[in-house]
UniProtKB/TrEMBL annotation:
Gene3D superfamilies: Methylglyoxal synthase-like domain
Record-linked PROSITE patterns: METHYLGLYOXAL_SYNTH, MGS
EC number: 4.2.3.3
Recorded family membership: Belongs to the methylglyoxal synthase family.
SMART domains: MGS
Gene field: mgsA
Catalytic activity: dihydroxyacetone phosphate = methylglyoxal + phosphate
BP GO annotations: methylglyoxal biosynthetic process
Active-site residues (renumbered): D60
Enzyme class: lyase
Name of the protein described by the UniProt record: Methylglyoxal synthase
Length: 139
């Protein structure tokens, strides 16, 4: 599975702790992240993470492009609902694309845990069918 990890500044510690707690699950998947979040995860775990640009500099849009192509399987986006974000339109666009493509997205650690536990159980096998029957997508 292709999994994106994104966290606003005040949620980065939560994301790092989450990655540490679920490293045993995440290590079996291809991980992508926005700039600083990916760096912090790699500094604190043995996980390999493909890093896109920082969110405000276009990283959210880069991940959004993968979602639009239906090549991202899960997004863990720990948002800070109490802090205004200068790139809020990019964030809303990313979440809209997830809804359009039916990509599961968690915006907080509680939902993230539910989705990662489902991933660990194999409940995301339906995404393999999406890849198998979508033209131009390798499975």
């Amino acid at each position: 599975m292709d999994i994106a990890l994104i966290a606003h500044d005040r949620k980065k510690d939560e994301m790092v702790n989450f990655a540490i707690a679920y490293e045993h699950v995440l290590k079996h998947h291809r991980l992508y992240a926005t700039g600083t979040t990916g760096t912090r995860i790699m500094e604190n775990t043995s996980l390999s993470v493909h890093r896109f640009m920082s969110g405000p500099l276009g990283g959210d849009q880069q991940i959004g492009a993968r979602v639009a192509e239906n090549t991202m399987d899960l997004i863990l986006f720990f948002r800070d609902p109490l802090m205004a974000q200068p790139h809020e339109p990019d964030i809303i666009a990313l979440l809209r694309l997830c809804d359009v493509q039916g990509i599961p997205v968690a915006t907080n650690v509680a939902t993230g845990e539910l989705l990662v536990k489902a991933l660990e159980r194999g409940d995301f096998a339906w995404r393999e069918l999406v890849h198998k029957y979508k033209p131009g997508i390798e499975g």
